[in-house]
Amino acid sequence: MFCGRRRDKIKMLQWVNNGFWLYYKRLEKGTFQWPGIEDDELALTISTRQLNWLLEGLPLVQDKAHPSLTYRYHAC
Q1: Which of 1, 42, 50, 62 could cysteine-pair with 12, CB 3.0–4.6 Å?
Q2: Is residue 70 part of a domain?
């Protein structure tokens, strides 16, 4: 994913079989809560949940979010 300088546009590349899909989203108002260049890492790995937050205009870290749950299947 890439974000414009004004943080109002996002482009995302996805490799599928033999080529790339380009996704593009531009906000009419406001900005994306994009991690700043002052952060230590140049590349981040985020979850699907965090991607949805980012596309909704929310920060990657949500203090009030429900914790992720994992379940183990136990065969009887």
Answers
A1: 1
A2: no
